Amino acid sequence: MVIVFVVVAVLVMAVIVTANWYVWRRLFRDTTRGPGLTRRVGAVLIAGGWILAITALVAERSGAPFWLQQVLAWPGFLWLALSIYLLLAVLAGEIVRPLLRRFLEHRARRTDQGAQPGPATSTASCPAGSAGRPTTAPDPAPASQPGGGGGGATASAAPDAASQRDGGADAPATAPAAPQANGSGTAPVSEAGDAGGASASGIVAGSRAGGGATQASAPGQPAPGRPAPAAASQPDRGAAATVLPPPIGPGPDTSPEASPEPAGTATPTGPSRRLFVSRVVAGAAAAAAVGTVGYGTYGVLRGPKVNRVTVPLAKLPRAAHGYRIAVVSDVHLGPVLGRGFAQKVVDTINSTQPDLIAVVGDLVDGSVKDLGPAAAPLAQLRARHGSYFVTGNHEYFSGAEQWVEEVRRLGIDPLENARREMPYFDLAGVNDVAGEEEGQGPDFAKALGDRDTARACVLLAHQPVQIHDAVEHGVDLQLSGHTHGGQLWPGNLIASGANPTLAGLDRYGDTQLYVSRGAGAWGPPTRVGAPSDITLIELASRRA
């Protein structure tokens, strides 16, 4: 048995450590560029929060000084709730993360395509009559073609000839035409402002008359003794500096995906897209978790609301039609919820003007010495036929015998496996199953064994699992608590698996079971998806 306990403890610890590492990674590591203060602060925050939570639990169970329990309870228990919703929010972020990344990538592609520049143009200096005509720059081509002797001039000689025919007009040394596929004398040049930002390379001088040799000028300078070559023009249109189309055949890839960024485009200095997405998701997850816990805590501290339920009973006489029972459970007075909260509960109950008040367990989390002053407002409860109390499992953690005497002193009648004959029905109460370890467990035979079965019977029992014994003893209605309705979603999934009814009214054979979600909260003073309540049961006679 000890080995099983150790194995389970190790597995639970491994799950907790892994979950917290995952939360730290998503919230702090993935949102920073590298190791630094933010990551260290995140590690301290998560580890420190769990240390506070565990210390608060141990202090409450070990009977540590009450002031110490109060100091540890608020931050420790709130961290428990916050860590749950941080984990859930970060897990939900895994769904949002790829969608957001795809959206940003799609938007970036659309932006790049919209900003893609058209063909580069230049208004080179031209002779009179041709000024202002654009020159279209083709793709870059090799600087020169090897020349041949005799009657074959090199390809780079064409610009010189063209410029001589046009009267030697000045033109920039950029954007000459690429060579024709058939070898016609059009000279190539480099394109200004390419992806690498390089300037135009040198222009190869044409072959001299009667000579076959070629001479290359220095980069960025015209051939010796000649002006800078202009873009080639056709002989019959000397006024127009029009570049011939690029050569036929495979050329460089000019698709948007393959095109380099234009010269002069600034390199992005902000965070990468992946880092940006991580920060957005982490910020949204943290905000959602904090908001959820904050709202759930506010819901508990403002006090429970009244839930009204009508329950018909076959054996109830007509005179009892409309009889009202105020049911309150799981108040959990302790280091977090104190005297002020108890006063809110009392005021809410009294406002319903009940005929009878049923306190169905888990009233306190602490000793009478520490919590006696907090429970004092319970003496103000008012009902026509009195107030009644049964123990819950937390009373046995806090000294059940002392609390039974304390509630009796406050004017509340404790039903310890006992029954009271009310004017219209029998009211019985049994101890909680947790009392079995102390020899004070539930005794249905003692509470219900010799009653008149012709009368309707209402049973107070803290845990819903006691319904099966109630059915065997012919109980008409059992009033319970204990589940908190799950308290913190998705805790309701676990609580519903451990209890026959999670909350509300249910039927088991001829016995009805009503389970209250409770007025307070245990551990974190927070409820999510299970609001606190005080239920006003209104009995209905079928004979009415």
Automatic annotation (TrEMBL):
Chain ranges passing through the membrane: 6-24, 36-57, 77-100, 280-301
Keywords assigned: Hydrolase, Membrane, Metal-binding, Transmembrane, Transmembrane helix
Lineage summary: Bacteria, Bacillati, Actinomycetota, Actinomycetes, Kitasatosporales
Protein's recorded name: Metallophosphoesterase
Low complexity bias spans: 154-181, 190-207, 251-272
Chain ranges of the Calcineurin-like phosphoesterase domain: 324-485
Region (Disordered): 109-272
